[in-house]
Recover the amino acids of this structure.
């Protein structure tokens, strides 16, 4: 399984990085659309929608994303962007932790429709807007990737105490601690020397941002695990060999990238 996971990453990562650096903003946004649609289909499946309603849901999310894209030149576009990112931040900082803590099991269709939108559209928009600074986007995504890999290996090596046994039995406190250490090292090597030394005014905001994004990445992971448990499935899909579905791969990105994009947009406006 580990070899399959690695091969999938090695195969897809060059396409992702190539698109990130060499596609124009519009084409990059369009290139990410299949991921949004795949995630929407998987979410609709987890929500228990019928086959017909899954297609309708995917179409609605596609129309929503295209509308945002087509209004990108509007003077109000930055305000709309920050509003969308703020909605995501409120969900992940407030609603999602409570959802996990109290184990909410009620899943009315309207709630699942809105939640799926909050997970997918702001994440897509964050990746679109942050493409203007591709190294920054990679560094932000690196927080999630480093945490995920470190938690996996630390958990397998030293994991004893379950982090959330009723939600995701495979996750442990030791894995989370290993991830925290790895992210701290990653911050020192990449963020401090790569960004903070060249932009000293951003040193403290960058440190605070990384410190907030790390626990949020865990919340994103646990939230999707809870939704899958309620749906009675192990993976959200089978699109990515060794990883499961698109939601399985971007769960922690949905909880971190929109907030990061909101902070970056606010700092740029202030600057």
């Amino acid at each position: 399984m580990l070899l399959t996971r690695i091969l999938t990453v090695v195969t897809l990562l060059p396409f992702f990085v190539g698109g990130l650096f060499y596609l124009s903003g519009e084409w990059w946004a369009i290139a990410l659309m299949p991921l949004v649609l795949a995630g929407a289909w998987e979410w609709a499946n987890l929500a228990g929608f019928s086959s017909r309603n899954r297609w309708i849901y995917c179409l609605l999310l596609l129309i929503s994303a295209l509308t945002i894209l087509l209004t990108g030149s509007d003077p109000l576009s930055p305000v709309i962007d920050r509003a969308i990112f703020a909605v995501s931040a409120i969900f992940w900082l407030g609603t999602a932790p409570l959802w996990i803590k109290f184990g909410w099991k009620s899943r009315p269709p309207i709630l699942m429709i809105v939640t799926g939108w909050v997970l997918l559209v702001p994440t897509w928009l964050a990746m679109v807007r942050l493409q203007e600074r591709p190294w920054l986007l990679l560094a932000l995504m690196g927080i999630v990737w480093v945490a995920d890999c470190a938690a996996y290996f630390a958990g397998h090596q030293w994991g004893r105490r379950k982090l959330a046994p009723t939600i995701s039995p495979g996750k442990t406190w030791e894995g989370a601690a290993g991830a925290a250490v790895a992210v701290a090292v990653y911050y020192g090597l990449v963020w401090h020397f790569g960004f903070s030394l060249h932009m000293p005014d951003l040193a403290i905001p960058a440190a605070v941002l990384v410190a907030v994004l790390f626990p949020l990445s865990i919340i994103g992971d646990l939230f999707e695990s809870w939704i899958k448990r309620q749906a009675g499935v192990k993976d959200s899909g089978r699109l990515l060999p060794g990883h499961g579905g698109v939601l399985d791969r971007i769960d922690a990105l949905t909880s971190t990238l929109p907030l990061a994009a909101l902070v970056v947009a606010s700092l740029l406006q202030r600057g």
The chain has a mean pLDDT of 90.
